[in-house]
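Lab channel / #folding
Pinned by the channel admin:
"Please post every new chain as: sequence first, then the structure tokens as a reply. Keep commentary short and put observations after the output so the thread stays searchable."

First post following the new format, from NK:
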Amino acid sequence: MKILDDFLINEFQKDLIDWFEQEQRDLPWRQDQDPYKVWVSEIMLQQTRVDTVIPYFENFVSKFPTIEDLAKAEEDKVLKAWEGLGYYSRVRNLHAAVKEVAEKYDGKVPDTVDEISSLKGVGPYTTGAILSIAYGVPEPAVDGNVMRVLSRILSVWDDIAKPKTRQIFEAIVREIISKENPSAFNQALMELGALICVPGNPACLLCPVREHCRAFAEGVQKELPVKNKKKAPTAVSMAAVVLQNENGQFLIHKRPEKGLLANLWEFPNHETILNIQTPKEQLGDFLKNEYKVEAKIGQAFTTIQHVFSHLIWNITVFEGKIVNTIQETDNLKLVHLEELDEYTFPVSHQKIRKSFLLQ
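Reply from TO:
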């Protein structure tokens, strides 16, 4: 491979792995090489910081210590253990895949590329991470961290936002990965990206592989990696209401089975449109039409912004009282304050609840 001309692979492997073995962080999923725990940690770490993941990981594996435990668990309990991490499709896919492993592979995480990559939600990165870390298979695990590190070390100027660029880095890793210790090698690349070769201003003077880095030698480390900016997320105006009946019970509803935040619970809310009606009036009409709820909606008590990767919710939150009798269903409930903890809410609606109680 032309990119690797004159690159001293053995020396790079040694310097990288020696540093990792001395400096690696003490993380709970590194206590052993249990493939199930590696799998859970890698799914949690997608788009989420390590310090955020640690307590969630510890709580999750305490509730579901084995594949069999997770496979048998009800979805509501699994979602509750994930509550607050976001990107709920990740845990739904994990739950479905674990059920397949329990049934098809007798509860043992597969150890081949074809088998493990066929599981729901397991893409090339997760496949490589599990196989290399848990099973010692020299398979690339290329994520944004790894592409950033290698783009600097090897002076690769291809746009890392493009899918075909990932294939370039996967081919590079196949050439340079340690066949003797692929687990430490892949984890070391990830660790280097998290601690030293960070976005913007890498800590080059602390880097254990600085002597191998072409970008450092050329003084262009801050210009790499090349990454075109994503389209800005779309801003949406929302109105939500915390409704109570005469008994002090709160009205909550369940989101649809498909789509954003599927099957999570929330307070009634509706996207608002700039027209002759106020957000409060639009919300009142929505409650009547969607849930047959007659309500006296009061004043707004907070505004909340919640940012997704592609969407921004700007939510104006009202309080209100239910006027008529509510017919509860599987997706529409009246619950007391202490019962709210039994339901899984997205972060935005956890914030709504907190703001309401702090009034």
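NK: The longest strand covers residues 295-307.
TO: also worth noting, Residues 234-357 form a domain with the Nucleoside Triphosphate Pyrophosphohydrolase fold (CATH 3.90.79.10).
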